[in-house]
Please model this.
Amino acid sequence: MIFKFTMSVLAEIVPNDVQMELKNTYNALCELLRHFWSCFPANTPFLEEKVVRMRANLEKFQFAKLNPLKQKLQTVHYNLNVSCFKTIRF
Model:
């Protein structure tokens, strides 16, 4: 019950365009992570190369999408105590 209440209140506070941007960013990140984790175990040269490419893609995604989204949300004073916005470290 508490979760549903929180989500309904959140839906009223956060504009629809911001909600859609968050959902789209989340879906894109999930797809990148799916490809990254599908490389393991990296027991072939192809998979080893793919891991390197996916790492680079994740880093690009962080700088091109996650960081700007974080800045946008901070400018409108949304609380960003969310783990997905923490720096990706390899």
